[in-house]
Amino acid sequence: MIWERVFACIGVATVVCILVNLLSVAYKFLHRSRLPKYLHDGKESYAFITGATDGVGRSMAYELAKNGFNLVLHGRNCEKLQAITEDLQDQYPAIKTRHFVCDASKDLLESSTLSGLRKVLQDIHLTILINNVGGMGCLPPDCLFQAYEAYTGEQIDTVLNVNIRFMVQLTRFIIPLLDHPPSTTSKKTKRQPSLILNMGSVAAHGSPYVSVYTGTKGFVAAFSNSLSMEMQMEGKDINVQVLILGEARSGSHIVKEGFLIPNSQVYARSALKRIGADRDAIVSGYFPHWIAMTMVQIMPESVSRRLFIDAVKEKKAAHKKRMASMAS
C-alpha cells in the first residue's frame, strides 16, 4: 500500500509538472507582444541588428521598423545595406537608420573598426541588440559537409569569429548603452528595460559535418543564460535571451516551406512577439520549432541520433547534387 501511494504521488506530481509547463508555453505564445516596452517614453528608441542584409536578420529589421523602432543595421556589404535602407524608408518614412559596415569574421577590436562603431552609436537611445550574424555562410559552399579534418585552421577560426567572438565582443561594448536609468518623464522608479537577443539553433544538439558550428551554438545558449542571470544580479533591467531557431526559408537559404520551416518573415514576426515575456533565457520563437525541440528532448538519444544522421545524409546528397550541377 505504501509503495502504491508513493507511485501515485509521483504520477500526480509528474502530471502537474507537465500541465504547468504546457500552461507556461501557452501563455508565452498566446500573450500579446512585449515588444512595445522597449520603446521608451520620450525617446527615439533604436534597435541594433547584426547580419541585417539577409535572412532572419533582414526580416527582423522590417518587423521592428513596422513597430516603430529606429534601426542600426550591420552588414559587410555597403551596397546591400544601402538598398535595404532605401526600401525601409520607402515603407516606413518615419524611422531613422544608421549603418555599421564590418566583416564579422575580422577583429572587432581593431582600432578603426571600434572607432566606426562608436561613431555610429553616438547620441542614440539604444534599447535592443539582436546578435543575428552567424552560420556557415562565411565559408565557401564546397566546404559544407566536408569531414572535420578537411577544414583548414583559418576556416575554423572564421566560423568561431563569426558565431562567437564578434557577438561576445560587441555585447560587451553595447551593454553600457543598454543600461538606462528611470525615465524623467515618468513616476516609475524602475530602470527602463532593454533587450539582448542572441540567435541559437537546434543544431546545438549536435550535427555531423558542422561540429564547430554546432559547438558555437551550444556556447551561445550557455553564454546567454549566464549573462541573463548576471544582469539580474547586477540590478540591470537588460533581458538576455537566446532564440532557438530551426530552419527558415529566405533569399539566402532556399528550402521548401512547411509546418516546421516557415519563411523568414513569418519566423521574425512570431519570434519578436515571444521575446521579453519573462526572464527565461532560452526561448523558442516559433511554436512548431518548440514541438520539434520537445520531441528531441524526450526521445531516447539513440533515436534522436539516428534521426539527425538520416536527415544530414539526405541534405548531404542534395548538396552534392547541387554542387555538381553548378560545376557542369
Automatic annotation (TrEMBL):
Belongs to the short-chain dehydrogenases/reductases (SDR) family. Pfam families: adh_short (PF00106). The keyword Ribonucleoprotein does not apply. InterPro entries: NAD(P)-bd_dom_sf, SDR_fam, VLCFA-Steroid_DH. One of its GO terms (molecular function) is oxidoreductase activity. GO terms for cellular component: endoplasmic reticulum. SUPFAM superfamilies: NAD(P)-binding Rossmann-fold domains. The chain crosses the membrane at residues 6-30. Keywords: Membrane, Oxidoreductase, Transmembrane, Transmembrane helix. This is Testosterone 17-beta-dehydrogenase 3.
